[in-house]
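Aim 2, interim progress. The first record below pairs a target sequence with its C-alpha cells.
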Amino acid sequence: MTHPQHLILTGDRPTGPLHLGHYVGSLRQRVELQTKHPQFILIADLQGLTDNGSQPEKIANNVLEVMADYLAVGIDPQQTTICLQSALPALAELTMLYMNIVTVSRVERNPTVKNEIQQKGFSRSLPTGFLVYPISQAADITAFGADLVPVGDDQLPMIEQTNEIVHKMNGLLKTPVLRHCKALLSTTGRLPGIDGSAKMSKSLGNTLTLSASEQEIHQAVSAMYTDPQHLRVSDPGNIEGNVVFTYLDAFHPDSEKVAAMKEHYQRGGLGDRQCKNELEACLQTLVAPIRERRQQLIADKEMLMGLLKHGSEKAHLHTQKTLHAIKRGLGLPVMF
C-alpha cells in the first residue's frame, strides 16, 4: 500500500524507441502513479553508454525519441519530472563515493549483472562502467530520495544492493541521510517477444514499438508464435507459451471475452487466425492514438528539449541537496 509521502523514481536507457513491453511493464503504471505521488523519470543516457560506449550516437539520437514516447502515452510533465541523467552531476559524484564502499566481488555476485554479462558475451572485454552500473542505479535512487522504485522482478537484486549501500553509507554519517527503498512490481509479467522468446528486447529485434505502423502491427501479429500442434481449427489447442494469448491477456480490455476464447481454443473449434484478428484489432486501437501523438511531438524537437531541460533543472536542485548532505556528513568540503 502506498502513502502520500512516497517518492517514485523510474526510467529507461535511451537505446531505441520504446515498445509494447515497456508500455505494459512500466509506462501505463507511470501514467497512473503520477496522479498519486511525486514521480521522477530519468532518461539514463550515461547508463546507456555502459554497453554502447563505442557508438554514443545511438544513445544521443534516442534521448528525444524516448521523451516523445513518454508524452505520447500520457506522462504529463506538469505531474511527472522528466530529466536527463547526464545533466545531473550529483549522480556521477555519488556513484564515485559509493564505489569506494562496494567490493568488486559484491558487484560480480549480482545475478542481474551476471546474466547480462553472459547474454552480451562480454567475458574479459567487459566495460568497467557496465560492471558498476548497479552502483550507478543506487546513486540515482538515493539522490532523489526515492522509496518506491517500479521494477521487474529481474531487477530485485538491484534494489537489494541499493539498500546495502544505503545501510553502509548511513553508517558512515553522523546523521543518516539516505532512505531505504522498496520495489514496486508490475502487476503484469514480462512480455515475451513476438517470436516467442523469453522477452521483448530491442537487441533481439523482436519488439513492436509504440510508433509501429498499421502494416507493422499486422505483420507482427501474423507472424506470432501460437501452438505448433494446433494444425486444424477443430483440434484442441494449448494456450501455455502461446504468444497470442499472452498478448491478449496483457492488452485486451475485456478479460471475460479472453477467458471464453481460451476455453474455446482448448476445447477445439477456434482457429489461430481468428485469435490473431482479435489481438490485431486490440493493438491497432491501442497504438493508433499513441502513434499520432508521437508524430506530432517528435516534429517539435525544440519543445521536447525545452521540457527535458526544465525537468533536469528541477532534478538538479533536488539531487544536489542529497549530495551536499552526504559530503558534509563525510567531512568533505562543499564548494558549489
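The second target in this work package is listed in the same format:
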Amino acid sequence: MTGPGLTLAGIAIVLVVLWANLRPWWKGDRNPAKLKSFGAGALLGALSTMCGGGLLGYLAGCAAGAANTGGGKAVAGTTGQQASATVTTGSLGDLTPAGAVVVFLITCGTLFAFRSAGKEERKRMVGGVFCGVCLCLTAGVASALNWLPDVVNGVGGQLTAAVRGSGIL
C-alpha cells in the first residue's frame, strides 16, 4: 500500500473511533461475540495494508488520508493547534500470490457479512476497517502483528498445495 503516513491528529481520530466501538462492549457484559463485526472489519483493514495496489490498497491509502484530514480539522478546531507531525510508519509486509487469494476470500466473506448485517453492525465493521488500516500503518501495531503476513501467505500455500494434490490444478 502506498499512501500518506499518519499524523498525530490522524491517530487521534482513529483512537476516537476505536474508543467509540470498544467502550459499549467494555461497559456492557464484555461478551467477545459482540466484537465480531468490529474485529472482522479490523482484520480486513489490516490485510488491506498488505495490498500493494488494487481496490484494497487504494482504499487503505484513502483511509489514512481521511484520518489525517479529519483529525487535523478536529484537533485544530478543538485546540487551535495543528498536530501535523507524522508518527513512525510501519508495514506488515507483502502478500504472495497465494496469500492474495486468501485476502480475496476474506474480503468476499466480509462483504457477504456486511450485506447481511444490520445498520449498527455495518457501522462497527466500517469502524473496524478504518481502525485496522490506520493502526497497522504505525510502527508499533505493525510490529505487534508481524506474524499476520506469514499466516496469510502460509494458508495460501496450504490451499494451493491441497488443490494441486487433489488434481484440480
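The chain has seven helices and no strands. This observation will shape the mutagenesis plan for the next reporting period.
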